[in-house]
Protein: Acyl-CoA dehydrogenase
Amino acid sequence: MRVENYVSPWEDADLVAFRDSIRRFVREQLLPHEDKWRQQHRSDRSAWLACGEMGMILPDMPSEYGGADGTPAHYAVAMEELTYAGAMSIALSINHIVGHYILASGTEAQKRQWLPKIASGECICSIAMTEPGTGSDLQGVRTRAVKHGDKYLISGSKTFISNGQNSDMVIVIAKTDLEAKGSRGISLFIVDTNTPGFQRGKCLDKIGLPGQDTSEMFFQDCEVPADCLLGGVEGQGFVQLMQQLPYERAEISIQAAASLERALALTVEYTRERKAFGKSILDFQNTRFTLAEVKATVLASRLFADLIVQRWVDGTLDTTLASMGKFWLTDRQGEVIDDCLQFFGGFGYMNEYPIARMFADARVARIYGGANEIQRELVGRSL
Ligand SMILES: Cc1cc2nc3c(=O)[nH]c(=O)nc-3n(C[C@H](O)[C@H](O)[C@H](O)COP(=O)(O)OP(=O)(O)OC[C@H]3O[C@@H](n4cnc5c(N)ncnc54)[C@H](O)[C@@H]3O)c2cc1C
Structure:
């Protein structure tokens, strides 16, 4: 779907072959279920296992932990192919994020216990940061974890949690020290969702991504062994979050760039076929001028996303670049899909048309992973 047959500099022969196999798999094994998942508001567990089998959940994880010894570029390819196909119901990115929290910050025992199951799709993950009272300001979380001997009792409420109905394990952000100032009292816990005291709330009714089970979660004296504390040391949660958030933002950036490419391809195809006043919609000067702008934006977005992928592969991706990509690419995603939808006329408003789904699905990209205003704040600090 790249414009002008552009080839990303990071895409070598191995990645081209990987892309081919993922593309076939997504179109043959996932896409046929997409409508069913949208209706039931969650993906099927069997699909996660199939994705695990394809090696697309944690391709960039060392094989000793169940990964495929690949690079973030393999993961970028998987994300792009899901986006190009419109297979948006299976939120693999959460497993990827959680896997990397554990790889970066977990104890050896935590890595061995969880990573192979996350990579295989046997363990579906959530990450529970947001609460009804706070999202952007994570220092304000009220969920607390109190130590009793060799256990912690976790209590609090979370909301908007992706994979919330399906998840087998959730990383929970909680305060272990209520007296500590700012971020110092925050810790992360790995919680098995079979633990007594954990309860799923309702699956939330959203304007987009209807196939994703975004949910509430409740913890009431949820008793977990002390070795569920990520990394084994209290008060490290905020640092652990800050280390990983750039990668979450990179993932959103990569999906945004792919979604721009898909929107342009779909729109060119449609406007070429659709006739009005005796000619193709594409032949109106207004259409060509608008799509010329779109095409330039799509190419610029691709170059931006490629820089992010390359830096991620090189290990030099920093907060500033990830946040810039997140806000800039998702802002363009919103504008471009809106422009493209216009050329579909009334069909663009019908959910059976991919452009309508893309329009609704794209809106959240400017909100989750840290609202775009927060990303501008972060970039502003680098000036
Ligand atoms: C579909 C979906 C999936 C999600 N998945 C997850 C998940 O898996 N795990 C999870 O923990 N959370 C998840 N979230 C939550 C998401 O990350 C939060 O909604 C987001 O961080 C914003 O927090 P909030 O909703 O509390 O908004 P608030 O913090 O109340 O902010 C509202 C708005 O205020 C403005 N604002 C806030 N702070 C500032 C500032 N400093 N400067 C300028 N403007 C500001 C922004 O415009 C912002 O959008 C998900 C949300 C959705 C909708």
